[in-house]
What does this fold into?
Amino acid sequence: MLNRVETWWRRPAGVREILVMALPLIVSNLSSTIMIFTDQVFLAHYSTDAVAAALPAGNLIYLAVCFPLGVAGYVSTFVAQYHGAGRPERIGRVVWQAVLLGLATIPLILLTVPLASAVIRWAGHPAEVASLEIEFYRALCWGESSVVLAAALSSFFTGRGDMWTVMIVDSLAAGLNVAFDYAWIFGHFGFPESGVAGAGWATSAATLFRVVVYVTLWLRPVFRKKYQTLAGCRFDRELFGRLLWFGAPNGLQYLIEVGAFGVFIVLVGQIGKNELAASNLAFNLNALVFMPVLGIGVATITLVGRHLGENRADLAARSTWTALGLAVVMLLPLAAIYVLFPNALLWAYGHAGDSTADAAPRKLAAVLLRFVAFYSLFDAMNVIFAGAIKGAGDTRFAMLTTVSAALGAAAFIWISQEWLHLGLHGAWFVVTGWISVLGVVFLLRFMQGSWRTMRVIEPLAGKRS
It folds into this structure.
């Protein structure tokens, strides 16, 4: 039995290898979760309208950046496969292609403010909530326009397995965001009291901090010499084309998925601001499960890419199954807490002096957490197995599957509200089914095995200096 445990722990692609890779990312994502949680707590203490406004405006800005973000973030797979294949000189060049994309994105996102204001007014949310959504979006734009650049730079570290650097940088940024939230929302330490807009400015400041730190680290002499992080500063049409070929489906997948989620938010917001605020709280707490699992998913993408670069598909498969096991062990206790003790989790969002109206979103959120508990396992399957096949380069299947499911979910959410009038619970039933179907489909695709022969990097014979 001892030998079996040692094998399970120590073998290549075993638990220890996954944990070494995933733990820093889990800590990093937990720091981000704490940041989001604190942000929502502060807004809940500020006003119900502020909480209601944060979710749709945040989703809208993410919708604006998610396509280039999906393309730039996919460069981590290239880095992982070049790293596994022993070709470090190509890493700086491919990261620069994503950095150039990130730089081009910044002015485009800043130009979306007038259009976003029109979309928010069209959504039909209560006037007092819509005005706050516009304020939040405007403030977020200044930082979120740089999030693609941050994703490209962080992929240099995650793709090589240097998760500790990402953990430290992202944790520092999260701590900075929390401090700025307190100062900017309520008007402390000489900052103006800006409410929900202050939360947006705090997030923007933290994002820009991440970019500055990543650039400083990326251009260190040791990286410039080994990975050509400075010498690779040029547009490479062939390499940029490969990044688009594999990364664009990833970006389109994000775009359609976030768009479908946007339909959900618009329709829930039309039910009422308490329902919208409750959904915001439930998704906020959902991050306690999702963000750590997402850290394991990023580790899976990296290890699958690295082992395929080494031509060890067997180790890539083992890494995936090990990652799923760790994710399940992590999420089951949290899912149980959602069902058994929802009010304990929601306590921080209110205070003893709440009126019945102020407490209504928390009462609804306690019910919605049961949906979160149910779909958590399927969400883990979605993250792990989709990450594994995308780590190989199977991005088109991932895109087609996600787009089909997202469009179907958006249609069913609309039908549930406009025709069947099923209300908040009907919309959440559709979201639960959407996530569950994706988890099963990606499991079946992984077991089918066509990903084992896929690669995103060019063959060695076609290598360029």
Notes: The first helix runs from residue 2 to 10. The CA atoms of residues 143 and 208 lie 6 Å apart. The chain has a mean pLDDT of 87.
